[in-house]
Specification:
This protein is α/β, with parallel strands linked by helices and about 475 residues long. The protein has three domains: about 15-265, Rossmann fold, CATH 3.40.50.620; about 305-405, Four Helix Bundle (Hemerythrin (Met), subunit A), CATH 1.20.120; about 410-465, no CATH class. Helix content is about 45%, strand content about 15%. It is built from 15 helices and 15 strands. The strands form five sheets. It has a four-stranded parallel beta sheet, sandwiched between helices. The two termini are about 35 Å apart.
């Protein structure tokens, strides 16, 4: 298997640190709004990476963080006259809903920045103690000159990092590109006690601490969108490697942008489409097809016409399952599929070549054409159908055929007893929120979500509903 490594700017043979076990980290959402279709590309692609590694027999420890402390979250809370916790809770819940709607499997760990404040303070203290960082006016900055390899990941040259579009002028800094590790508290903002006074950690430190706590000093893959290579990933790498003297990750993977009329889709440019709005018109399989029919490193132009074509394409694939009874559908992926080795090999060859999902999808269509050949014997047809399902699930397709992954049927019994039990759990969650036990509150919400029960919080309390089957 070969993966394009952003750090070396070439495809390299993928060799995990520990045979049979893969540790990967990708940057998750900053929860101040619903995520748009450009954000969705990274979330969906790294879900496919994880699925393929598991398909090939590996154990995968996949960590995706949630940034629940950030300037944008605080600004949203101030504008809505509420707490940053309430804003974060609302959009974390929405994030889970939208990921589930897209068929994105939940990572092994999904840590929130607010849960690791002590560890972040300890880490920043170590950087200061060793001379890699310095306090200034109650803020703490990382000195990029202390890391000789700064800029190697992104290809940025330190001398070019003067005041400009991505580097703010700040007289408190020794170098214009020095970045913030700890931000001094401002009025009406959340803060924690630290050796430098009240404040909160910077974004770049959050990911370093959470990834190393859960995956160790060096892990296999660090991923995210291309826009994160600099400054975020460059700054993560600098902090991690000055402390450990080891690579933070052995492979750095970055997916391309989603463009609108040739311009990157982003909230700041107000040229974005929310994922949940797109899913009102198109199926999750069509959205997946839209993303995966292009190589992950290539930019994609958002185009309604292309999504319409994607919907037709996935309909042609799912047509292969028409006529199967419920027992046949429930057995898909659990039997046979050992014949027709050429299709399996072609699929693996595509995915082993830097996750070439476009070629992998072409294999699915080859299978669908073979299934439709006149005169095919029943045994061969059934094996082909089973193989189509098995390979399609690696890319996240065919979720609506059954409930194997999500068990939506667990929430379908809307009996009086079920209602009372749900409301009892909601009351326990409200008690936890009243006591500011956000960990327990989130745990109850997440476990209900896994059972197909969506909670909605507003100023009047909490209501619940059942997930809609896709």
């Amino acid at each position: 298997m070969r993966i394009y490594n952003t750090f070396t700017r070439k495809k390299e043979e993928f060799i995990p640190i520990e045979s049979g076990k893969i540790k990967m980290y990708s940057c998750g959402p900053t929860v101040y709004n619903y995520f748009h279709i450009g954000n969705a590309r990274a979330f969906l692609f790294f879900d496919v990476v994880r699925r393929y590694f598991e398909y090939t027999g590996n154990e995968v420890i996949y960590v995706q963080n949630i940034t629940d402390i950030d300037d944008k979250i605080i600004a949203k809370a101030i504008s809505e006259k509420t707490s940053f916790e309430e804003v974060a809770a609302k959009y974390i819940s929405a994030f889970y809903e939208d990921c589930d709607a897209l068929g994105i499997n939940k990572p092994s760990f999904q840590p929130k920045a607010s849960e690791y404040i002590k560890e972040m303070i300890d880490f920043i203290s170590l950087l200061v103690e060793r001379g890699y960082a310095y306090p200034s006016n109650s803020d703490v900055y990382f000195s990029i000159n202390s890391f000789a390899k700064y800029g190697e990941l992104s290809g940025k040259i330190i001398e070019e990092q003067r005041t400009g579009a991505r580097v703010e002028e700040n007289v408190s800094k020794r170098h214009p590109a020095d970045f913030t590790l700890w931000k001094a508290a401002k009025p009406d903002e959340p803060s924690w006690n630290s050796p430098w006074g009240k404040g909160r950690p910077g974004w770049h430190t959050e990911c370093v601490v959470m990834s190393q706590k859960l995956l160790g000093k060096t892990f296999d893959i660090h991923g995210g969108g291309s826009d994160l290579a600099f400054p975020h990933h460059e700054n993560e790498r600098a902090q991690a490697e000055v402390v450990t003297g080891q690579p933070m990750a052995n492979y750095w993977m970055h997916n391309g942008f989603i463009n609108i009329d040739g311009t990157k889709m982003s909230k700041s440019l107000d040229n974005f489409f929310l994922t949940r709005d797109v899913l009102q018109k198109y199926s999750p399989d069509a959205v997946r097809f839209f993303f995966l029919s292009k190589h992950y490193r290539s930019p994609i132009d958002y185009n309604v016409g292309i999504l319409d074509e994607a919907e037709k394409a996935v309909s042609n694939l799912t047509a292969c399952f028409e006529g199967l009874n419920e027992a046949d559908i429930n057995s898909l992926g659990n039997n046979g599929a050992d014949s027709f080795a050429k299709y399996k090999q072609d699929f693996s060859d595509a995915m082993d070549d830097d996750f070439n999902t476009a070629k992998a999808i072409a294999v699915l269509f080859d299978l669908s054409r073979a299934i439709k050949v006149n005169g095919l014997d029943t045994t061969s047809k059934n094996e082909l159908i089973n193989l189509l399902y098995k390979l399609g699930k690696v890319l996240g397709f065919f979720r609506k055929l059954n409930n194997c992954s999500y068990n939506d049927s667990k929430a379908n019994n809307n009996s009086e007893l079920t209602v009372k039990l749900i409301e009892l759990l909601i009351n326990y969650r409200m008690e936890a929120r009243d006591n500011k036990n956000w960990v327990k509150s989130d745990q109850i919400r997440d476990e209900l979500s896994a059972l197909g029960i969506i909670l909605k919080d507003d100023k009047n309390g909490t209501t619940w509903d059942l997930k809609k089957n896709n």
